[in-house]
């Protein structure tokens, strides 16, 4: 496969630059991969589209204020973009500067001096003046994606975060969960739709473009995840009751499938790092349906959706969404995707 097989043209004005007034105001495109048809809905139509004993699985990661501005001791600007907190007042981060950086240099920030301790591939290991979580919580800004072309506001601190966010560690939001407010969750619960959570700390690699034309040559950045025993038990109950396991976002799909590959069936919790690249040809072990936002052209996230519902069907549904002026990407609208035949193991 080639990355151009997953390309499409998106009018720039359809890239959502701000959230809607209410989380549950979003539109929803239902794509049935088996029948290769789609239909237009609202996110609140989940109350009609989901059945009693279906299980919604959310990612409970909490987005850190991951961007910290700084300056070299010589005066040049540097932006620190957290990838992952590390022990002992260290962090793994991307650094953006006008001139080349090197190990041993210091970056002055509002929180004190940050030293570049080592280089690890595309990332830098930093020595911080405080523990990583404390440093970024106190001195960082909301890490809005690069296609949102404005500075973050106070509203983003609340809206670029799921209401189920609990475990700090992500540097990008699991955006499918942003459509749910407390009223919608309560209504789904009253209908008998079940809920579980897993954790996958979304890294900066989620925005990483494919640099090779051959899709199979791409290597994912590893991300930390945990699927605990409670989530595994909830999946077993849903299966026993005839319900579907619905991943709320591609991060949940990757966490569930990674856990399955690591020994999900034992019933014990699974945690670790995953670099699982789900692309067409993958057979899903756990996920029965996928709720997800619209994704960037040629992205690994679009390839995951194509693996689930079929490349041609997904791109045709995207063309419909563009024609109907859906809102795209992190603050955009959503899709409920049902699988094509043969992708479930």
Structural account:
The structure is a single chain. With 345 residues, the chain is an alpha/beta fold. The chain folds into 2 domains: 3-63 and 155-338, QueA-like; 67-139. 22% of the residues lie in helices and 28% in strands. It has 8 helices and 17 strands. A 9-stranded mixed β-sheet has the order 2-1-17-16-14-3-12-13-15. Strands 5-6-7-10-9-8 form a 6-stranded antiparallel β-barrel. It is globular. It starts with 26 loop residues before the first strand and ends in a 7-residue tail after the last strand.
Question: SSE order in H/E notation?
Answer: EEHEEEEEEEEHHEHEEHEHEEHHE
Morphology: globular
Q: Bin the helical content.
A: 10-25%
Give the CA-CA distance, first to last residue.
22 Å
Strands of the widest sheet, in order across it, are 2-1-17-16-14-3-12-13-15
- According to CATH, the homologous superfamily of the largest domain is QueA-like
- The quaternary organization reads as single chain
Structural class: alpha/beta
Number of helical runs? 8
**Alpha carbon gyration radius:** 20 Å
CATH architecture of the largest domain: 3-Layer(aba) Sandwich
Question: Which sheet architecture does the biggest sheet show?
Answer: 9 strands, mixed
- The fraction of residues assigned to DSSP E strands is 25-35%
Uncertain runs? none
Number of separate domains: 2
- CATH class categorisation of the largest domain: Alpha Beta
Query: Care to count the β-strands?
Result: 17
What is CATH's topology name of the largest domain?
A: QueA-like
Mean pLDDT: 95
Keywords, please?
QueA-like, nine-stranded mixed sheet, 2 domains, 28% strand, alpha/beta, globular, six-stranded antiparallel β-barrel, 8 helices, 345 residues
